[in-house]
Amino acid sequence: MIQIRPADPDDEAALSRIYNEARRAQFHWMDVATIREGDFKRDSEDEEVFVEDRDGEVLGLIAIWVPDSFVHHLFVAPEHQGQGTGSRLLEFAQRRYAWPLHLKCVEANERALAFYKQRGGVVLERGFHEEVPFLLMEMPLLDAEA
């Protein structure tokens, strides 16, 4: 059975694996040699983290920095990409919070940019982080009842 639930301490190894494997596979603008085992725990500190779980296997994760209604991380295990996990996690977050969500997407991440735009994401502004261009986007608020 597939469910979306809050992450718990037992998920730490799976969260780290998904975060690191997805970045190694897709973040060609990043020096992947700098990726370390504790990155996800550090990079998601104080965020609300939810996972999509299928019969005890974590398929993907979303981490929200609630004070800024900001999607900080949305990652799906490489072997489960293209199967709806990312869409379900994003929609879950859009329905959970009573405000539009924001996120940054690196311009070079064409796949992610297309994903967000297909789901109603609107570019608000362009910026740079460590000389890497990104787009600040807003995701539409979804009806909590649907």
UniProtKB/TrEMBL annotation:
Transmembrane segments: none annotated. Residues 2-146 form the N-acetyltransferase domain. InterPro entries: Acyl_CoA_acyltransferase, Bact_Acetyltransf, GNAT_dom. One of its GO terms (molecular function) is acyltransferase activity, transferring groups other than amino-acyl groups. Keywords: Acyltransferase, Transferase. This is N-acetyltransferase domain-containing protein.
